[in-house]
Specification:
Bound molecules: iron/sulfur cluster
CATH class: Alpha Beta
CATH topology: Uracil-DNA Glycosylase, subunit E
Number of domains: 1
């Protein structure tokens, strides 16, 4: 589906709004906000009937790095922000090791409502189904079209299969670079929830790989910026 007309309209509206009254907001921030307001009432899949709220995304839409996870869990569903539970704390600590925080990046998920499975006395998280991911894809595509990230970091196989390619194999292709119409630089790593399920040396190794992939993403952003600065300097001579 071509989202260019929607994006162009959105940007025209937000440019006008921006000029009119809010000097702290940027066109991308306003466009993401407008999209999130639309998504708040989304009924496009069955997750709408069990969610507390749509968890659209968090962070800085003007940042060069977009992180895409799997879906909200219980804490995210209650709080309305992605990656706020234990997996989120682990992600934040890995990002902090590379001097990155949420002011520098935007974080979202392939599905924006919590997938759950009801057991006898409890309700627990589950991975999103392929139908749910397909239903939610337009929100992700529109988010990417607004942000136009320099680098996308996919966390976990569902995100990599959605953004990189359907037959992505996380155990073999994690940490490799890809490029497609979503972004010129895309890399996948372990989901923090997967890392948390590891123990001992396996935990240390998986966590180190996640930190390494975050470092690779940050370094790629820096390389792209350096190249852009050099070509701008050349044009000005
Ligand atoms: S998961 Fe996505 S498609 Fe499904 S109801 Fe929520 S926002 Fe809509």
């Amino acid at each position: 589906m071509n989202y260019a007309p929607f994006f162009a309209l959105c940007m025209r509206i937000v440019h006008t709004t921006h000029k009119m009254n809010d000097h702290n907001q940027t066109p991308k921030r306003l466009a993401v906000l407008a999209l999130a307001q639309q998504a708040a009432n989304c009924m496009n899949c069955g997750l709408a009937s069990t969610r507390t709220q749509v968890v659209f995304g968090d962070g800085n839409p003007d940042g060069p790095l977009l992180i895409v996870g799997e879906g909200p869990g219980m804490n995210e569903d209650l709080e309305g922000r992605p990656f706020v539970g234990k997996a989120g704390q682990l992600l934040d600590s890995c990002l902090a090791e590379q001097t990155i925080d949420r002011r520098h990046i935007y974080i979202t998920n392939v599905v924006r409502c919590r997938p759950t499975i009801r057991e006898e006395k409890s309700v627990r998280n589950r991975p999103p189904s392929s139908e749910e991911m397909a239903a939610c894809l337009p929100w992700l595509q529109q988010t990417i079209a607004i942000i136009q990230p320099v680098v996308i970091l996919c966390l976990g196989a569902p995100s990599a299969k959605t953004i990189i390619k359907p037959d992505f194999r996380i155990t073999q292709e994690r940490g490799q670079w890809f490029s497609n119409s979503y972004a010129p630089n895309i890399i996948a790593s372990w989901h923090p929830s997967y890392v948390m399920r590891m123990h001992g040396d396996a935990y240390d190794k998986a966590r180190a790989q996640l930190v390494g992939d975050i470092a690779a993403a940050r370094n790629r952003v820096r390389e792209v910026r350096r190249t852009l600065e050099q070509s701008t300097a050349l044009e000005e001579t």
